[in-house]
User: Fold this.
Amino acid sequence: MGDLRDLLHWSAERAADYREALDDLPVFPTDVDLDGLRGRLGSLRDEPTEAALVADELAGLVEPALVGTAGPRYFGFVTGGSLDAPTAAEVLATAWDQIAFNGSTSPAAAVVEEVAGSWLKELLGLPVGASFGFVTGGQAANTVCLAAARHHVLAEAGWDVEQDGLAGAPRVRVVANGERHATIDRTLRLLGLGTGALEPTATDAQGAVDVADLGRVLGHGPAGPTIVCLQAGNVNSGAFDDLVAATAVAHDHGAWVHVDGAFGLWAAANPATRHLLAGVELADSWATDGHKWLNVAYDSGYAFCSRPAAHLTAVSYTAAYLTGQGEGGLRAPSDYVPESSRRARGFATWAALRQLGRSGMAELVERCCALARRFADQLSTVAGATVVNDVVLNQVLVGFGDDDETNRVIDGVQRSGECWMGGTTWHGRRLMRISVSSWRTTEADVDRSVAAIRAAARRA
Ligand SMILES: *Cc1c(COP(=O)(O)O)cnc(C)c1O
Assistant:
């Protein structure tokens, strides 16, 4: 056992060294020789290697090629850092090696998910009676939610999709915000509904659903099984659909309403941004991420459903599916997700919520939004730069001259190693896309990043 203890101490030290260096390391390693890395990783050996050597070799090879997504100046996609308590919880969870399947494989994991799930509902303003599943991320959460939706709308039409599949089933319409996240489309493929089922709505100037057009689209097609996909937090602009009005229109047409709130749902945890989610509790299902704004390590997401029976019928496989109560009367986490054997994700979620508390979560959301506004304010003073979205949350979109120039600025910034932000095409224009989602980011990090952008813009 001495060897393992030494090895885990070593790993912890190495991990701490890495995290402490994040402030100074290049945010993206630009001059890494990946072919060399591939070569040094070697070929499969016949003989075993001592564990301590393996860990040392792996860290030595990989660390120079790591991307600073856990650091303070990574603004690509929507990327949280990992808070300290959930990071420690993940280390322990790996060592504990629990099977978070049900109450007999791991009573502790089952109970922790149950408690953390109810905390999440409270924080996000979702109905107390909603069911929930701990999944890998927004994609998986959208898939679980829309599987529940598919079950429900087809059951209402007298069709048992779990037994009879989709061949010969009534057609399911999926009316979605025209700027939905692409994971909705993949979900429709995976669920056999097909992207051909999609009827996109018009959006407003910020990419929020045009509610009048939603009503028009719904009224235009045949009545029947219908799912409406709304968005809380447009992945480019951060815009929120008007959930009160859009949900009312959708429910008037008998539709199931799903809200993709991969990062935007967290606005509910902050009193100053909560109004953006007015009416969120009226929907039928909700998807969000843990690895974005909650700042737990990858990967982590949550699917919530206002109709637990639909949720369970769609994804569970136990005989006790109607209650979701498995061995020992405990909630069975695997009844709410597509996985059977699975990692215990609840520990990190519980740890993050415990570390932050209600006030810490509110402050984290508020701080990221304030830093996004700081970006917007400072970037508007950079020659040739234009902030093109209303910065209502943590997302900032900025263009430089024409599309080619914008691409050159993005490329220059990424190569600088000072910070990392991606590009996007939105409303026909190439833009730099900035998302402030990490607990680590400070005003000084924004200022340093703006300086890097300013320098790249001067060279472009
Ligand atoms: C990130 C995101 C997703 C996908 O989430 P993953 O965690 O990458 O699976 C879905 N919808 C929106 C709005 C997102 O921002």
In short: Residues 388 and 397 are 6 Å apart (CA to CA). The first helix runs from residue 2 to 21. The two ends are 57 Å apart (CA to CA). Residues 78, 137-139, 181, 183, 233, 235, 260, 262-263, 289, 301 surround pyridoxal-5'-phosphate (CB under 6 Å).
